[in-house]
TrEMBL record:
Coiled coil: none annotated. Gene3D superfamilies: Biosynthetic peptidoglycan transglycosylase-like, DD-peptidase/beta-lactamase superfamily. Residues 80-258 form the Glycosyl transferase family domain. It comes from Sphingomonas humi. This is Penicillin-binding protein 1A. It is a single-pass type II membrane protein. Residues 801-859 are annotated as: Disordered. In the N-terminal section; belongs to the glycosyltransferase 51 family. Keywords: Antibiotic resistance, Carboxypeptidase, Cell inner membrane, Cell membrane, Cell shape, Cell wall biogenesis/degradation, Glycosyltransferase, Hydrolase, Membrane, Multifunctional enzyme, Peptidoglycan synthesis, Protease, Signal-anchor, Transferase, Transmembrane, Transmembrane helix. The lineage of its organism: Bacteria, Pseudomonadati, Pseudomonadota, Alphaproteobacteria, Sphingomonadales.
Amino acid sequence: MDAVATSSTPAWLDRHHAAADRLRAAWAGKRWLRLLGFGVLGLYFLFVLVWLFFAAGLPSSEKLLAYQPPLPSNIRGVDGQPVGTFARERRVELSYDEYPPMVIQAFISAEDKTFFSHGGIDYPGLVGAVGDFALKKATGGSRARGGSTITQQVAKALLQDDEYAVSRKIREAILAFRLENTLTKEQILELYLNQIFLGRNAYGVQAAARAYFDKDVTDLTLPEAAYLAILPKAPSNYDPLRQTQRALDRRNYVLREMVNNGFISQSDASAAGASPLGTIRLGSNAKFREVGGYFTEEVRRELLRKYGEDAKAGPNSVYAGGLWVRTSMNPLMQDAAAEALREGLATFDGGRGWRDTGLSIDTNGDWRGQLDRAALGTGFPDWRKAVVLDKGTISARIGFTDGSTGTLAAGNAIMPKRGGGGSAYSNLRDGMVIIVKQVAGDNYAIRSIPEVGGAFVAEEVRTGRVLAMQGGFDAIGASYNRATQAQRQPGSTFKPIVYYTALANGMTPATLIDDAPFCVWQGAGLGNKCFRNFDANYAGPKTLRWGVEQSRNLMTVRAASQTGMAKVTDTARRLGVGDYPNYLSIALGAGDTTVLKLTNAYAILANHGRAVIPTIIDLVQDRDGKVIFRTDNRCAIMEGRCNAPDWDGGAMPRPPSRSRQVLEPQAAFQMVHVMTGVIERGTATTLRDLGRPLFGKTGTTTGPTNVWFVGGTPDVVAGTYIGYDQPRSLGGAAQGGRIAAPIFKQWAQAAFKDVPPTPFVAPKGIRMVRIDRVTGRRVFGTFPVREDPKSAVIWEAFQPESEPRRTLRRAGEETELADAAAKAAPRRKAPPRPRDQAVKPAEPAKAQEDFLARQGGIY
C-alpha cells in the first residue's frame, strides 16, 4: 500500500508566511505604500528627536518626587509668637487632606473638570489652543486662549517659563506626561493648590484665603471658595474693588459648573450667587503684627550670610527654604524701645520745623498703588502716609494707601518749613507725599519725620541675647541700622572702662583723685594738651566714686594717666568696644564704637567680668522642623549626656559655661556698684524713681554731637544714643542725662512693669565697708540711711585688704580707735615717766590685721 504524503508545518505558520509574501509583493509593487511606510517611520524618528530635544533639562522623576515649593521664612520672638516673615511669595504649604473637598471641587470645576480622568493633556482643548495661536499669529491678533490642564499648569510653574511660544507648550506637555507617570493625582493637585498665584502676592490657596478673606481654607464659605477658584487665570481681571461685577459673574459661572459636575445643589448655588464677594481691603489682613523692623532686618542679614537668598543658594535659603527662626527678641521690650526712641527723637526735633519728605507721585494715575510702594515709614502707629490730591486756599484733600481720603486744613500745617520759606502748608503741592496724624473725624494735622538719628539696644546680661534693637525712627525706607552700623564717639559712657582698669590696678572707690587742671606735653610741634571739665570748674581732691557720679573729665584722665593708657585700651579690646591708640583723649570717649558693642561691654561688667557675645538668633529649623543651627550649642559638646534617654547613675550633667572670664570679677562688681551712684546722686537721677536697683552712665561728646546713656539692672542692660548721622552740634544744652536717660526711663517703665526688682549680687571676696561718702574714710558706729541717696555714710565695695584701715598711734598721732575709746572711757591720769625715757614706737597691728582677715572685714 502506498504511503500518504502529509505536511508537518502548522496551519497558522503557513498563514503567516502567506501574509508576509503578500506584504512583500505589495511593498515591491506599490510605490505609495513604500512612501507611507517611510513617512510613518520618519514621523516616529522626528517625534523621538523632538522629545529628546525639548525634554533636555526638564526635571527628572526623582526631582519631581523630591520637589518642594518655595516657602517664606517665618520669624518668631523669644516667646515663640510670630513677629515677621521674609517672603517674595506669600505661601503656606498644606497637604492634600488639609484642603476641604468644597475648595478642591471649586478649583476643578473652574479649571479642569476632567482632571481625575485625563492623562495630563486635554487634547480637544490643546487642539483648540494651537489653532487659536496659529490664527492670532497669522492675523497679528491678541494673545491666544490657553488650553492647559491643572497638570500642565503645575508643569508651567515648575518650568518658571512664561514665554509665549509653541516650544514652551511642548515642554509643558512633556513635563505633564512625566508628572502623571511619577505622581498621583492627589499629589499633583496638592502641588497646584500650594503653588498657583492668586494675586495680592499670595501663592497657594491658603495664602490667598488670608489675603482676600483673612480666613484659613477650612473656614471658607462656598461663595468665597468659588471666588478664589476664578483667580488662577488672571487675578487682576477679577480684582474685587476695581472689577467687582466681572468677578461676580465669573464666580457665579464657577457655581453653575459645580452644579453641573454634581458637587452642589442648585439651591446652594443660588444662595451663594446672591451673596456679595465679601473680600477685605488689600493690606488689612495681617495675621500677626509685624514687630521690630530693625531687629528683623538684622536677622535677615544674618540669615542671608548663613544660608543665601534663594533656592539656587541651597535648600535652606531665606526666601525659599521655609525656615522657622526663633529669635531673642522680646516683643514687649522691642515695642517699648521703638516707642521710647521715637518719642525721644520727635521731642528733640519737634521745635525745629517741618521737613519735606522729598517724595512725590503722579496723582493722575494709580496714586493709591504708588503711595503704597513709596518707601517712607511713619514711625508712630497713629501717623499715616498720605498724598496731596488737591490743594486749595484753606485746606487740601489728601489720600491714603487704602484709597480713602481726608482733609488737611491750613491751620493744621502752620509749622515753619525747616530752613525758612514759609509754613508747611504754603510749601505743599499736588502729588507730594506727606505724614499726617488724625485729629478729628476725617481731619488731619501734618507731622514731620525727625532729622536727628539714634539707636537703642537691650541685652540679657547672663547670655548676651539681644532682647530689643531699634536702629532709628523707622526701618521702612531707612534700613541703616544705627545700633550696629553707626560708629559714634561714646563720650563719658567710656569712662567706666577707664575706672574699671584703675580699680583692677590698685585704686579703690575711696581713692582720692585730684580734680584739678591736667596738661600733657605732646612734643615740640603740638605743645601742651590741656583737658577741662564740662563746667570748666575744679573741685580738688575727691573720691573715685564722686568722679564717676559727677562725670569729671579731669579726674578720668588723671586716673588713666596714673593707671596707664596701654592698660585702658587693652581693657577696651577685651570688652570688644574697639581697638584704640594709647592717647589720653580716648579715656574721655574720643574713639568710635557702636551702641551694641558698648552695651555688651556694660553687660560683661554686670556679669562679673564674664564675656558674653551679643546674639539675635536662638535657633533655626528647616521646613521639616529639624534644627540646623543653635546659638547655645552646649548640649552638642556633651557627647549625648545633655539629652540622655535615661539616668546613667552618675551625677546630674552640668552644661559647660557659655562664657569665659575676661575681667577681674571683683573690680567689675566694684565698677557696677560705683555706677549705681550715678543713678542715686549723679548725672542720671531722673531714673531714681524707677524704684529698682540700677546702674549706668550718661555720656555727652564734644560739640555736643552725641548724647548717651548705658545701664540697667543685674539682668538686662540697655544703651541708647541720639545724634545726627552727619555729626554736628545738638545744641549747647544737650546732655546725656537730659535727653538719653529719659529715653531709657520710658523704655524701662514699660519693659520692667511686671518684673520684680533684683539686687546686685557681689562676687566672692568683696567686702562691703561703711565709709564717709565725701572723704572716703572708714566710718564706725554709724550706718547708711538707705532712704536718703545723699546719706553721708554709704556702703562701699572693696577688694580684700584694700579697704581703709584703722591705724595705731605713730609718732605721737592718735588713732581713730584711740579717739573713740578716749571719748567713751573716763579720763585717767597717766603715771609719771622718767624725763629721759624714750617713747617706743607702736608695733604694727599684726594681730588686728589677722583678726580682720579671719572675719572677712567689718560690715
